[in-house]
Amino acid sequence: MRQTVQRRAILQALDEAAGPLTPSEVLERAAHHHHALGLATVYRNLNALEEHGEVVAVHLPNESTRYELAGRGHHHHFRCEACGRVFELHATCPVAVLEGVTLPGGFEVRDHALTLYGLCPDCRQAA
User: Is pLDDT of 102 > 90?
Assistant: First the structure.
């Protein structure tokens, strides 16, 4: 996949982020690296980068799709209820012990997603 100036700006914005970003957030941050970037270009490039496995989509309940760099391994997210930012959590996975385990009734856990909700340090301090 050809690395254009726009793609490099988008990848840099995602790399510098503390968590997954919406396309609008990607545009805002990537514009610091490439001023002539538009939202349609961001969407088009995010789709192409996802198809090539360079970024992954993060789906939170009742939220717009967010994106983060691929290859960061299994992790969970925290969404601040005040500012709306989403952060990656790097703590040990509390439910990983269930993966591959057969639960009562024959259910087998193969994957999971966990999002915690609350206040980030900045919003908690401001409250």
Answer: no
Query: Which residues are 88's β-sheet partners?
Result: 77
CA 72-69-49 angle, to 5 degrees, is 140
Q: Thinking of the domain 5-69, which architecture would CATH place it in? A: Orthogonal Bundle (1.10)
Tell me the per-residue pLDDT of 35-73, one tens digit each, with 9 for 90 and over.
Answer: 889 999 999 999 999 999 999 999 998 889 999 999 988
Q: 16: Cβ–Cβ under 8 A, 6 or more apart, which residues?
A: 29
Answering whether pTM is above 0.85, one says no
Are 99 and 110 in contact by the 8 Å Cβ rule? The answer is yes
First to last CA, the chain: 46
Q: What SS3 class is residue 7? A: helix
Element (H, E) at 56: strand 55-58
For 76-126, CATH number out of 3.30.1490.190, 4.10.240.10, 3.90.550.10, 3.30.530.20 equals 3.30.1490.190
